[in-house]
């Protein structure tokens, strides 16, 4: 990287000067992107509506509240507060992996439909 005649001390000195110059040149760019006090202001009208939502498992009739950006026209009252409602068929309350049961609740009749189509006659 350096000529052979320069001693190790001078190499280290030149390297330190180079790093100091590069840091000094990049510092104003760093300060432009980020406020020192971390007073970040989010841009308006580009972020989705992130709010509390009730997910309702139709197979076990359990419900849980979490935060989501999903949009739905349905609502439900839980403990005196109105939340958007999302209906799901499988959740951790009904999935065999989480419940330890080998049975999967089939709400759409997919197994019967398969058997009707492909059963041997």
- Structural class category: alpha+beta
The global form is: elongated
Q: Order of helices and strands, N to C? A: HEEEEHH
Instruction: Report the helical percentage.
Output: 25-40%
Low-confidence stretches: none
Largest sheet: 4 strands, mixed
Calculate the terminal CA-CA distance, rounded to whole Å.
80 Å
Query: Which value, in Å, is the CA radius of gyration?
Result: 31 Å
Give a count of the beta strands, DSSP E runs of length 2 or more. Answer: 4
**Strand fraction band?**
15-25%
Assembly context of the chains = single chain
Which strand order do you get reading across the main beta sheet? 2-1-4-3
What does this structure look like?
The protein has helices at residues 8-33, 96-99, 110-118, and strands at residues 51-57, 62-68, 75-78, 81-88. It has 121 residues and is an alpha+beta fold. Strands 2-1-4-3 form a 4-stranded mixed β-sheet, with no helix packed on it. A hairpin with a 2-residue loop joins strand 3 and strand 4 (81-88). The longest helix is centred in the first third of the chain and has 26 residues, at 8-33. The radius of gyration is 31 Å and the shape is elongated.
């Amino acid at each position: 990287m350096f000529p052979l005649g320069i001693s190790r001390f001078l190499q280290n000195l030149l390297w330190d000067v180079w790093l100091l110059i590069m840091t000094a040149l990049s510092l104003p760019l760093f300060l432009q992107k980020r406020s020192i006090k971390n007073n970040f202001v989010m841009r308006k009208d580009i972020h989705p509506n992130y709010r509390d939502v009730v997910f309702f498992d139709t197979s076990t009739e359990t419900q849980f509240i979490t935060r989501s950006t999903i949009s739905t026209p349905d609502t439900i009252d839980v403990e005196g507060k109105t939340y958007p409602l999302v209906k799901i068929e499988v959740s951790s309350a009904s999935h065999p992996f989480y419940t330890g049961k080998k049975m999967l609740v089939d709400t759409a009749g997919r197994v019967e439909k398969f058997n009707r189509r492909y059963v041997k006659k």
